[in-house]
Amino acid sequence: MFVPHLGTDQIFQFRLDAKAGRLTANTPPVVQMKAGSGPRHIVISSDNRFAYLLNELTATVTTLALDARTGLLTEVSSASALPPDTKLVPGAPRPSPGRNVDNDIWASDLHLTPDGKLLLTPPSGPAARSARLRVDPATGTLTYLSSTPTEPQPRGFAVDPTGRTMIVSGEKSDTLSVYAIDPVSGALSLRQKYPTGKGSNWVEIVSFD
Q1: What is the pLDDT of residues 6-49, one digit of tens each?
Q2: ∠ CA 168-87-127 to the nearest 5 degrees?
Q3: What is the pLDDT confidence band of residue 209, given thresholds at 50, 70 and 90?
Q4: pLDDT attached to residue 101
Q5: Using alpha carbons only, what angle is made at residue 52 by residues 50 and 58, rounded to the nearest 5 degrees?
Q6: How far apart are alpha carbons 170 and 122 in whole angstroms?
Q7: Can you tell me the distance from the alpha carbon of 23 to that of 139, in angstroms, rounded to the nearest whole number?
Q8: Pairing with 52, which of 9, 80, 125, 142 sits 20 to 30 Å away (CA)?
């Protein structure tokens, strides 16, 4: 089990005794990430070979190899989820009073498509966009593809079990955006917006057989 900790820039590593329901710290107990990166969300590839870590304060996604024998993570590479012409700047865990945060990065969520080919994340900022990164299944490395305008200050989103639809909420929005995911290119196209009231926070999709 892995627990990203934004304030210390670490990932805590645990071993789970499923029968007893107990956790013990692995050895080593933490993975130290780059200072100021702000580890926040982590997802595991379907083959359990890689973990993808979203860093909230820099909008980078770190690929970590997962050792099936020891349960330990090792950093492999990192890719930015921001477009090359971005004006956003690294954020801070606790902004100082009076500090202008209008252009701060607050990357908020991370999901893989069910086929494992795309990684999606919305870096927050004044020009909110949802980014797509291509996944190399052999090496786990990521390549930035493009980004699509989305809800103001995107907070949470989800991809449906077929991998063809993405739904995004925004903390500074009163609607949800629903996008079609192209099955070949992975490109996003807006289908429709739906009213939700102010401050939408999270999205979960429940599938029924």
Answers
A1: 999 999 999 999 999 999 999 999 999 999 999 999 999 999 99
A2: 30
A3: confident
A4: 81
A5: 150
A6: 10
A7: 30
A8: 125
